Amino acid sequence: MLRANFFFKFFKDKQNSSHEIVKYNSNETFYLQDQIKNKIIEIDQQISETSKALVEAQIVKLRSTFSKSNNFIDQIGKNVYKRKLEDSISWHQKQLKELCLRRKELEINLEKLKGIFWLNRIKRLLRIILIGFFIFLSLFIFLSGFMIIIYLMPLIILIFLGYFISTKRY
Questions:
Q1: What is the structure's pLDDT at 35?
Q2: Are residues 109 and 150 in the same domain?
């Protein structure tokens, strides 16, 4: 009897004792999507500012490389200046990589919220496969054309010799 009572309680439909009305708020997902989009826009602005600063640092490095100064103090200053420029460039590059990674994570989260994550992942995979196929096909065509030219070289030489002999005047 105890077992029967246990199974009866276990498999019995549990009735909902709550009589509250549950409201589904669909605006929460849209609010979260808007927040992620705003963060992506902010990161895009930071990426553009960082890339501009990186380009400016590269230009300054290029100018300092080609500047002409034979003064000993200028050479010491240039070496210190170059080290600082290298540090600045590496910092900007690292910052740019971090921003791109954060943007990619936010895009993935946005795709997951919208429900298009796997569709986009399949599209990316197909794009990579298609690009690889075209690269392989172009390499195959190039190498086969090269091999055809090598195999036809005796025939091409024979045609040129025949042409030169026939056009030779005595």
A1: 93
A2: no
